[in-house]
Amino acid sequence: MMGLPPTMNALRKPYGKEGLELDQVAPTPNEVGPEDVLIKVLRASVCGTDLHIFKSDPSIRDRVAHNQIIGHEFCGEVMEVGEQVTILAKGDIVSSESHIVCGTCFQCTNGQPHLCQEISLIGVDRPGGLAQFVVVPAKNAIKIQGIPLEVASFMDAYGNAVDTAMTVGLAAKTVLITGCGPQGLMAIALAVALGAKQIIATEVSKMRIDMAWEILGKHLQDDSNHSKSSTRKDNILNPKDRNLISNIYELTGGLGVDVLLEMSGHPSAITDGIAALRSGGNAVILGLASDKIELEWNDLVFKGITVHFRYGRKLYETWTNGQMLLKSGLINLESLIHRPYYKLEEFDVAFQTLLKGEAAKVIFTPNTDYV
Predict the structure, then answer these.
(1) For a Cys staple, 219 with which of 74, 192, 249, 277, CB 3.0–4.6 Å?
(2) Residue range 237-256: mean pLDDT, rounded
(3) Residues 13, 118 share a domain
(4) What is the CATH number of the domain that holds 82?
(5) How far is CA 203 from CA 122, 165, 211, in A?
(6) 49 is catalytic
């Protein structure tokens, strides 16, 4: 293909070793299938799955092939399109949907493609976007307009938060968000935008608590830049406080919260969140637990709690809703982004920054001619 370099930089995962390796990959991916697109990666980010891969976590270690190019949060410019592609053109700016679905299984043909039984993941099961170029199916390259590249790079992760926050109505509801990692922080912004009357979040990290207050304050500014927070009873609580549940009931006038958005996967966050729900409340669970969780089953039954488990994003309803919220100005995620940005060769510093809890989202600029 004209104009492409013969080799490219990419971050690859050696099997069984902690960390990644920066390699010169030859040739640059140039076999674009009839339904594929070739993308020049302009921005890339890192999600929790990438951190597990970096650490060679047993939960994913054996799924990632030796020397696989990782990364599924990225955006870029379409450089080539397959002969059957009609929805995209050269020069389009696109963001990645990481879940490649078969389109023929029961779930795909019955309105649940995000639960496809033959699903494969970009950056896990096939080469990903922590590289200068990547080839993906055109249906997984979502056209982006009016959204900063940095935010467009993690639309995939943002979609998880959008799907979780929109599972049940939040308007005029009291909402508990457990865990203020990147998706928890996004959930705070979404809860404000979707009309929650009170937001309570839990987090142990000082940095994340500060970021949660920042996100909350930013999204409680009205069009005249006046704060609406003076009439509200929002709060960020430390889940290690032995009085956590009683404090939540006190903040909600003794009723408990209407909705739990569980974003952490921590066993105590899940059990505490359910304990804080009012009778008839809704628990929406996104976080993945690293161990078994014991629940007071009778509490779920006697309180009449409805539990919703979420995985991934609705294809492609969540993308539409997420973009509309961003472009309307109701959601602003730029304060999640750590600066300065990183070149691919600075990957170890970037990953260690995340592992130390010093950032929510880091950004890579794989092609330094576009910064």
Answers:
(1) 192
(2) 97
(3) yes
(4) 3.90.180.10
(5) 30, 18, 11
(6) yes
CA angle in degrees (0–180, nearest 5) for 274-275-276: 90
Task: Estimate to the nearest angstrom the gap between the alpha carbon of 164 and the chain centroid.
Answer: 11
Angle at 302 between CA 299 and CA 307, to 5 degrees: 65
List, for residues 259-305, the tens digit of each pLDDT value: 999 999 999 999 999 999 999 999 999 998 877 888 888 888 999 99
The catalytic position among 49, 167, 178, 318 is 49
Tell whether 229 and 346 lie within a shared domain.
no
Asked if residue 177 and residue 281 are part of one domain, the reply reads: yes
**Positive/negative CA dihedral, 45, 185, 122, 95:** negative
Retrieve residue 177's tokens.
């968000």
Mean pLDDT score, 212-216: 96
Same-domain status, 93 and 190: no
Length of the chain (residues):
371
The encoded tokens of residue 175 equal 């909402």
SS3 per residue for the chain: CCCCCCCEEEEEECCCCCCCEEEEECCCCCCCCCCEEEEEEEEEECCHHHHHHHCCCCCCHHHCCCCEECCCEEEEEEEEECCCCCCCCCCCEEEECCEECCCCCCCHHHCCHHHCCCCEEECCCECCCCECEEEEEHHHEEECCCCCHHHHCCHHHHHHHHHHHCCCCCCCCEEEEECCCHHHHHHHHHHHHCCCCEEEEECCCHHHHHHHHHHHHHHCECCCCCECHHHCCCEEECCCCCCHHHHHHHHCCCCCEEEEEECCCCHHHHHHHHHHEEEEEEEEECCCCCCCCCCCHHHHHHCCCEEEECCCCCCCHHHHHHHHHHHHCCCCCHHHECCCCECHHHHHHHHHHHHCCCCCECEECCCCCCC
Residue 230: which domain range?
A: 166-309
Tens digits of residue pLDDT in 302-356: 999 999 999 989 989 999 999 999 999 999 999 999 999 999 999 999 999 999 9
Q: Are strands 36-45 and 363-364 parallel, antiparallel or unpaired?
A: antiparallel
DSSP lists the bridge partners of residue 328 as none
Both 123 and 194 in a single domain?
A: no
**Which residue matches tokens 């492609």?**
316
Q: What is the pTM of this model?
A: 0.94
Q: Which of 52, 308, 338, 353 is catalytic?
A: 52
